[in-house]
Amino acid sequence: MHTHFVASTSTLDIAYLEWNRGATRSAVLLHGWPDSPEGWRPVAAQLAAAGWHVLAPALRGFAPTRFRDAATPRSGQLSALGRDLLEFIDVLGLAQPVLVGHDWGARAASNACGLRAGAASHLVMLSVGYGTNSAQQTISLQQARNYWYHWYLATARGEQALRHEREAFTRLMWDTWSPSGWYAPEDFDAALQAFQGEDWADVVLHSYRHRWGFEAGDPACAADESRLDPAPVLAVPTLVLHGAADGCNHPDSSLGREPFFDGRYERRVLEGVGHFPQREAAQQVGDAILRFCSEP
């Protein structure tokens, strides 16, 4: 059974779900956009049943995580997500946890590993190819089409839709990024609660605008930004799981990333699975994590 807790870092009160506290091996499961820690329930239960201590935090901007100071910039830049994760690990005293991230969470987890060698024992990235954070990256026309919402959010019209139609806007992503009928209405409703945070829209807008160079970053993140661009080579054993039917990040976007990894690297494409593998194929994802992390 999970329990809800809060970990206070230098900038955030990070809300998180927890399973099997006291177990020796730990895993931090990081959600993406638009999603919440609720999406990790089945995978977390599987890892906890295997004897792991599992934690699933809500990222900055996602309720009930809160900024501690009104003066802190509501940055959504990806280096900040990585730094948040490192502080979360430190505050809770986690020793080299397995880091499992989906979408934004995958970017946060890989950035944490890029900022601190030895931050994790293993890295598992869902639905994201490493080295795809830079504004200068080359993307295909198909991927540019998939990212229509990135360009829309760079406009005043997109900002209004995000702020005032957040339920319809986020539901559109769930309805178009995976094969139809993959989720129950109550699953979306549970995730939607995380999008009601007072800073959610600000963080989301800044994240996508900063990613493509449309807005400046938080000066406090400048040193971390310079360390992450270009993307550093990672030594941590890494597994990439990508749905073959992902309508957001085309599975080809995670191809050919082997040169970024010094250690063991595996990539698996999940047939019939869309953008949310941990929700659509939880057993398969849990099995893959346990298998991969059974080796050093």
Short description:
With 296 residues, the chain is of the alpha/beta class.
Description:
The protein is α/β, with parallel strands linked by helices and 296 residues long. It has a single domain, classed as Alpha/Beta hydrolase fold, catalytic domain (Rossmann fold, 3-Layer(aba) Sandwich). 37% of the residues lie in helices and 16% in strands. It has helices spanning 41-49, 78-92, 104-115, 141-146, 148-153, 156-164, 166-176, 185-192, 200-211, 222-228, 277-280, 282-292; strands spanning 3-8, 12-19, 26-30, 53-57, 66-67, 98-102, 122-126, 238-243, 265-270. Strands 1, 2, 3, 4, 5, 6, 7, 8 and 9 form a 9-stranded mixed sheet that branches. β6 (98-102), α3 (104-115) and β7 form a beta-alpha-beta unit. α1 (41-49) packs across α12 (282-292) and α2 (78-92) crosses α3. The radius of gyration is 17 Å and the shape is globular. The mean pLDDT is 96.
Structural class: alpha/beta
Q: By CATH's scheme, which homologous superfamily applies?
A: Alpha/Beta hydrolase fold, catalytic domain
Q: How many strand units?
A: 9
- The CATH C-level name is Alpha Beta
Distance between the termini: 28 Å
SSE series: EEEHEEHEHEHHHHHHHEEHH
- What's the overall geometry? globular
What is the multimeric organization of the chains shown?
Answer: single chain
Rg over alpha carbons: 17 Å
Low-confidence stretches: none
Tally of distinct domains: 1
Largest sheet: number of strands, sense, barrel closure: 9 strands, mixed
Helical content class = 25-40%
Residue fraction in strands: 15-25%
Mean pLDDT, rounded to whole units? 96
CATH topology: Rossmann fold
Organism: Rubrivivax gelatinosus
GO molecular function, one term: hydrolase activity
Pfam families: Abhydrolase_1 (PF00561)
Domain AB hydrolase-1: 28-278
